[in-house]
């Protein structure tokens, strides 16, 4: 069993001084029988079975010694996908998203908790959208944040989003106290939730159906129980809102498929209508964030039957054919 959290050291001064420290509890691995034999001392007491000598070949350890647990934590525990169970360094993601070098300290979660990021938050304001997106790591932390009592206004980080607080100072102050619980959710969920599905694509099949394809998540794909595909009907081609805001169910189509599938068909859609499609991965602990939204337009009614192969050469008008012959 593995777990991680953050404990706070607080000095009752004016103003109050706090420091945050991550604590990780990990169950070390059991030594194998061969490793126990290799580390046994020559003077280890043994108990002989009746009729046996006390030579190393025939001696056995006592029942008490045999049942005792011997552990080693020399190897880092990893998931079945080979992903370390505790990974809170998002530097690679930050580099890929062009975070400035002076703000890279915020890409390591423990640096934020320890106050050792190496820069003031105000200096990295423009980098925070990418930093927070990397910290979420494609996992949906919102249920955990709700459980910890974080209000909707302060849940941006739980979704991998960052919104500068420019309207009211009150809003910014009210969210400061929820930063630590939000980071605790990230510390925990990085070890349990899958990342978002990759390479999502959408193709129109008919005027009422779309075909959605994707690839498994990069992290903890082996824990996925099912995928959920959401298609939201848009009001117009250039707007990302529901066609009927008073009844969201009319504009949302949801489909769940098993973990071994990487393609699905959304049916019963509206002809010649723009949809935005996302795919999320779910396991026993929660879900990933939705994949990047893909827009797709269903075909116009009757278009399929009118389509012809691009390989068919059109018949030229008779007059044009005769003209070409005379030339």
Automatic annotation (TrEMBL):
<dbReference type="InterPro" id="IPR036116">
    <property type="entry name" value="FN3_sf"/>
</dbReference>
<feature type="region of interest" description="Disordered">
    <location>
        <begin position="20"/>
        <end position="82"/>
    </location>
</feature>
<dbReference type="Pfam" id="PF00041">
    <property type="entry name" value="fn3"/>
</dbReference>
<dbReference type="GO" id="GO:0016020">
    <property type="term" value="C:membrane"/>
</dbReference>
<feature type="compositionally biased region" description="Polar residues">
    <location>
        <begin position="34"/>
        <end position="52"/>
    </location>
</feature>
<dbReference type="InterPro" id="IPR050713">
    <property type="entry name" value="RTP_Phos/Ushers"/>
</dbReference>
<dbReference type="InterPro" id="IPR003961">
    <property type="entry name" value="FN3_dom"/>
</dbReference>
<protein>
    <submittedName>
        <fullName>Fibronectin type-III domain-containing protein</fullName>
    </submittedName>
</protein>
<dbReference type="InterPro" id="IPR002602">
    <property type="entry name" value="DB"/>
</dbReference>
<feature type="compositionally biased region" description="Acidic residues">
    <location>
        <begin position="62"/>
        <end position="79"/>
    </location>
</feature>
<feature type="domain" description="Fibronectin type-III">
    <location>
        <begin position="196"/>
        <end position="301"/>
    </location>
</feature>
<dbReference type="Pfam" id="PF01682">
    <property type="entry name" value="DB"/>
</dbReference>
<dbReference type="InterPro" id="IPR013783">
    <property type="entry name" value="Ig-like_fold"/>
</dbReference>
């Amino acid at each position: 069993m593995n777990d991680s959290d953050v404990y706070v050291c607080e000095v009752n001064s004016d103003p109050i001084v706090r420091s945050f420290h991550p604590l990780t509890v990990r169950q070390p691995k059991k030594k194998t029988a061969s490793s126990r034999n290799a580390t046994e001392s020559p003077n280890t007491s043994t108990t002989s079975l009746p009729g046996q000598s006390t030579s190393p070949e025939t001696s056995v350890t006592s029942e008490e010694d045999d049942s005792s647990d011997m552990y080693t934590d020399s190897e880092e525990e990893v998931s079945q996908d080979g992903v370390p169970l505790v990974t809170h360094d998002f530097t690679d993601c930050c580099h890929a998203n062009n975070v400035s070098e002076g703000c890279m300290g915020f890409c390591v979660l423990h640096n934020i908790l320890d106050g050792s990021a190496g820069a003031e938050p105000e200096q990295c304001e423009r980098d925070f959208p990418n930093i927070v997106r990397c910290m979420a790591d494609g996992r949906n932390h919102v249920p955990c944040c709700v459980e910890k009592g974080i209000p909707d206004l302060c849940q941006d980080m739980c979704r991998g989003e960052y919104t500068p607080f420019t309207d009211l100072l009150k809003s910014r102050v009210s969210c400061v106290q929820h930063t630590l619980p939000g980071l605790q959710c990230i510390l925990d969920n990085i070890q349990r939730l899958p990342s978002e599905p990759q390479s999502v694509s959408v193709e129109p099949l008919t005027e009422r159906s779309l075909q959605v394809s994707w690839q498994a998540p990069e992290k903890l794909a082996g824990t996925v129980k099912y995928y959920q595909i959401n298609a939201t009907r848009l009001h117009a081609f250039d707007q990302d809102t529901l066609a009927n805001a008073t009844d969201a169910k009319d504009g949302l189509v949801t489909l769940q498929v098993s973990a071994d599938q990487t393609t699905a068909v959304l049916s019963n859609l509206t002809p010649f209508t723009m949809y935005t499609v996302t795919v999320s991965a779910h396991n026993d602990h929660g879900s990933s964030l939705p994949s990047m939204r893909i827009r797709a337009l269903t075909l116009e009614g009757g278009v399929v039957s009118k389509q012809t192969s691009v390989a068919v050469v059109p018949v030229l008008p008779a007059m044009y054919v005769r003209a070409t012959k005379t030339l």
